[in-house]
Design a protein that fits this description.
By secondary structure, the chain is α+β, with helices and mostly antiparallel strands. 37% of the residues lie in helices and 21% in strands. It contains 14 helices and twelve strands. A hairpin with a 6-residue loop joins β2 (21-27) and β3 (34-38). The radius of gyration is 22 Å and the shape is flat.
Amino acid sequence: MYILPKKESLRMIAALAEDYDLYGPVLQDVSGEPLFDRAMDPADVRLDAAITYNPPKGVLFPQSERILSYRYDRESRKASIRRDDLVRPKALVGLRSCDLNGLLCLDRFFLGQEYVDDVYLDHRKKMFIVANTCVRPFPQCFCVCTDSGPSAREGFDVNLTEAGDDYLFEAGSDKGEALAKRLGLKEAGPDASARKGRIVDASIARFDAEATENKAWISRVVNRITTGFIGNEVWEYVGDQCFECGACAFVCPTCSCFNIEDVASGEGGADRMRSWDSCSFEGYTRMAGDHNPRKPVEDRRNKRFFCKLSYTQSKKYLRPGCVGCGRCARVCPGDIGLPNVVTYIRRETTKAGTR
Ligand code: SF4
Ligand code: SF4
């Protein structure tokens, strides 16, 4: 571990900007709220910002993206396919550990199954990740309940932990070590790990009691969802609260539903576009002939919670599909963000005497 004085952090970000396009928490001009966004100036990356409204997933899996173009030549009867060169090296700076775990879930979805998604891979390779231990959790945060925070354990090149006037700088890769050498950082000394442990413990103690009291219950809810123990009336209740706006999926760092559309670009050509989708939308599972296996909203709602909390899904991600960022609780107009649904299931199963 190394010591990065806080006043030197801009030098670190500027060094990354020499080799990478920079992304991080950037305060918006009008609202002053932090968004995870492209930073054109290293000074725009705010390591001290609150959790960003959006997760960083849009950097690797953009909300709408051309994944290829094709053209059919009628005369020669030949089709040609073209892929854009997407490989711009990117540095994601200031990722909270919930969001880094979300990114690892996306890796397993796009890269860790039968097919490797080349477009996602293009974004993912040549990426530098600077994680930031969360020392000031927010009221909706519950990463401590989903084994994803407040400090990252894997997947970073550098992990920073705020410690007074300094950051403890952990290199998680050769690239991270090289950056420490390039910046001429001093070794942190033998007590650095213990010091970091105390900072992380203090952060855990700051989590809102209401958010963390679901800790034991999350694993029980995983068990109940996986075994099909939750009655349909629970999903009907949850479905009744849902406005089908899709906001929960769009702010979720692990939601990966998408739609593919070919859009004519003229002269026999078309662009194949990939856009975010949401399992809460009725059209998501609608098929030709208007058949829809998930027509009632509760059928669609329970699928989202299966995806986040069932054991079958967790096996795919090697962790729960929810990383406890709390964003869905923040944006849901129906008040059925994931923590509330866990609380509701907990109340219902306790009421039914099944605890
Ligand atoms: S389900 Fe909600 S709390 Fe969990 S990771 Fe997604 S947005 Fe965050
Ligand atoms: S944010 Fe809430 S209301 Fe909107 S789709 Fe998600 S669960 Fe339904």
